[in-house]
Specification:
Elements: E1 7-10, E2 13-16, H1 27-31, E3 34-36, E4 39-44, E5 47-51, H2 53-67, H3 73-87, E6 92-103, E7 116-126, E8 136-140, H4 160-172, E9 177-181, E10 187-190, E11 194-199, E12 202-206, H5 215-224, E13 227-229, H6 233-237, E14 241-246, E15 250-257, E16 260-261, H7 266-279, E17 290-292
Parallel strand pairs: 8-9, 8-15, 12-13
Antiparallel strand pairs: 1-2, 1-7, 3-6, 4-5, 4-6, 5-17, 6-7, 9-10, 11-12, 11-14, 14-15, 15-16
The structure holds 4'-deoxy-4'-aminopyridoxal-5'-phosphate.
C-alpha cells in the first residue's frame, strides 16, 4: 500500500474514498433503492482471504435482480480483490453496494427506476475485532420483522429501517440487541444476525421464512450438523444456550434474553472457536470457502 488514503471501488475503478460524493438527488437516498452485502476477509497463511465470497455475491445478485439493478458477479469479485489489495487490508469488513442514482438528464423522484443511473461500489474497513466471546443481552422486540410477502429477506437497503427501529428500541431499554418474534410466537432473527439454540447437546438453527438466509448460519449448520427448524420464543427461553451469528457477529453467545439468564455456553464457545479456525484457513477440509486475495 503506497499512501495513507483509503481507496474504494466506484463504477469500474479505484478512487480516493474521501473525495467521492453522491448527488443529493440520489434515488437510493430518498427511497432505499439499493442492495448491499457485508463480507469479511481474514488474514490467513496464504495472505488475505475472503470468506464465502461467491455466496455473498449470489445473494446480492438476487437482490439486484429484484430491484432491476444490473449485477456482474465476476466484476464484483474483481472489485473486492482489487480494493483489499489497494488498501493492504487483510482482516477487513467488505461492503459492496449497488444503487439507483439520478435521472440521466437530472433529478428524477418518480418510483419508476428504469430511467435512473446505476452505480456500484466496494469499500473495505480494516477490522480486527470480532464479537465472538462477548456476551450479548437480547430482548424480544415489540416490532415485527418485515414479512417476506412484503419485502423479501435480502439485503435491500430500505429493508434495514425495520432493523434500525428494533435496534433503537432495544437499546433504549438497555439491551444490546433485539429479537424479532412473529405473531404466532415463532422466532425470526435479530436485527443483523440469525439465531441458534442448544438443548441437551442438540444444536438447532432457527428457521423462518422472513429471516435472511445467513451465510454464517449455513456455515455453522455445516460445521455442527445442526438441525434447521422453526423454534418458538418459549423453546428459546427453555434452551441451555442461545447464540446469534452473522458475518460481523460471527458466533456470539447470548447472556440474557429479557429476564432469562443463560449460564456457561460450552457448545457455543467450541463452535465459535471452530468457526474462527475455518475463516482463517486453519481447517484443511474447509479451504474451498476461502477466496485468497
Ligand atoms: N440477518 C440479518 C437481518 C442480517 O443483516 C445479517 C447480516 N448479513 C444476517 C442475518 C446474517 O447473515 P450473514 O451470516 O450472511 O452475514
Amino acid at each position: 500500500r503506497r499512501s495513507d488514503t483509503l481507496l474504494l471501488w466506484f463504477d469500474g475503478e479505484l478512487a480516493a474514498a474521501d473525495v467521492m460524493q453522491a448527488p443529493l438527488s440520489t434515488h437510493a437516498l430518498h427511497y432505499g433503492t439499493g442492495v448491499f452485502e457485508g463480507i469479511r476477509s481474514y488474514a490467513t497463511r496464504e495472505g488475505a482471504a475472503v470468506f464465502r465470497l461467491p455466496e455473498h455475491l449470489e445473494r446480492m445478485r438476487k437482490g439486484a435482480e429484484l430491484l432491476g439493478l444490473r449485477f456482474d458477479a465476476a466484476l464484483a469479485t474483481e472489485a473486492t480483490v482489487q480494493t483489499l489489495r489497494a488498501n493492504g487490508h487483510r482482516d477487513a469488513y467488505i461492503r459492496p453496494l449497488s444503487w439507483f442514482g439520478t435521472g440521466a438528464t437530472g433529478p428524477s423522484f418518480g418510483l419508476d427506476v428504469s430511467p435512473l443511473t446505476q452505480h456500484f461500489m466496494v469499500t473495505t474497513v480494516a477490522q480486527r475485532v470480532h464479537l465472538s466471546g462477548e456476551r450479548t443481552r437480547l430482548t424480544v422486540s415489540p416490532w415485527r420483522r418485515n414479512p417476506a410477502t412484503a419485502l423479501p429477506p435480502l439485503k435491500l437497503c430500505g429493508g434495514y429501517v425495520n432493523s434500525i427501529l428494533a435496534k433503537r428500541e432495544a437499546r433504549s431499554r438497555g439491551f444490546d440487541e433485539a429479537l424479532f418474534v412473529d405473531e404466532e410466537g415463532f422466532v425470526v432473527e435479530c436485527t443483523g444476525a440469525n439465531v441458534f439454540m442448544v438443548r441437551n447437546g442438540q444444536v438447532t438453527a432457527v428457521e423462518h421464512r422472513d429471516a435472511l438466509p445467513g451465510i454464517t448460519r449455513d456455515t455453522l449448520i455445516a460445521l455442527s450438523g445442526a438441525q434447521s427448524r422453526q423454534v418458538t420464543h418459549h423453546e428459546l427461553l427453555d434452551a441451555d444456550e442461545v447464540f446469534v451469528c452473522g458475518t460481523a457477529a460471527e458466533a456470539a453467545p447470548i447472556s440474557t434474553l429479557d429476564r432469562r439468564e443463560f449460564g456457561d455456553n460450552p457448545v457455543t464457545r467450541e463452535l465459535a472457536a471452530l468457526y474462527a479456525r475455518v475463516v482463517r484457513g486453519e481447517e484443511p477440509g474447509r479451504s474451498a470457502w476461502l477466496t485468497v486475495v
